[in-house]
Amino acid sequence: MTRQIEKGRFIVFEGLDGSGKSTQIDLLCARLKNEGRNVVKTAEPTELTTGGIIRDALAGNYQRTPEELSALFLADRIAHNVNPKNGIIKLLSEGTDVICDRYYYSSFAYQGMDCDLDWVIRMNKQCPSVTKPDICFFIDVPADICKKRVDNRGTVREIFERDSQTLDRIRAKYTEVFNKLDGENIVIVNSDGTPEEIAERIFSLLPPFTP
């Protein structure tokens, strides 16, 4: 009898820039690999052509409307899913856990601030090539703390990182988005404690494997 391959888990991390997403993703990847899981870490925007166009806009090098950015993110997300070499759909079908830094929740919160939120949600949720995550962890950190962390990086800031008022708006929009969404497994993660303590809370909430 052929052994059925367990489907990989699609795990998304969301939060403001400076919330500690990258740290938690690295800790979870290491934990899962130590347990013998195949794990791939990925992010949006991607390294594909569409992702490069988006990063250029986020850097402020080319002005795009919120509607343009929403459509570009969707195009990038579709490519992220269906890439025949290392797309999300292929990896999950092979039993690989995929951990993604940002997904469509970011489009809802960021682009949804300045254009029709329901439209952004609808075009992502109704797209058959956009995989629904098994779980989304939102690392909830106050905007002023995130702003200080971003400033301390000493790197060029993206258009959404340049003032604490914008970060406050984004955090509030995430709350609105999460209240709007039905059928999504979203966990708001309290950021109190050490990175290792937060990682333990996240690991304990991972969904089980499914065939």
Kindly list the characteristics that best describe this protein.
Rossmann fold; 5 strands
Please write out the topology:
Elements: E1 10-14, H1 21-34, E2 39-43, H2 49-58, H3 66-82, H4 88-93, E3 97-101, H5 104-110, H6 117-125, E4 135-140, H7 143-153, H8 164-180, E5 186-190, H9 195-204
Parallel strand pairs: 1-3, 1-4, 2-3, 4-5
Helix pairs in contact: 1-9, 2-3, 5-6, 5-8, 7-8
Structure description:
This protein is an alpha/beta fold and 211 residues long. It has one domain: Rossmann fold (3-Layer(aba) Sandwich), CATH 3.40.50.300. The protein is built from 9 helices and 5 strands. The chain has a 5-stranded parallel β-sheet with strand order 2-3-1-4-5. It starts with 9 loop residues before the first strand and ends in a 7-residue tail after the last helix. The model has no long low-confidence stretch (mean pLDDT 91).
Largest sheet report: 5 strands, parallel
| Rg result | 17 Å
Quaternary: single chain
Q: What number of domains?
A: 1
CATH topology: Rossmann fold
Would you identify the CATH H-level superfamily?
Answer: P-loop containing nucleotide triphosphate hydrolases
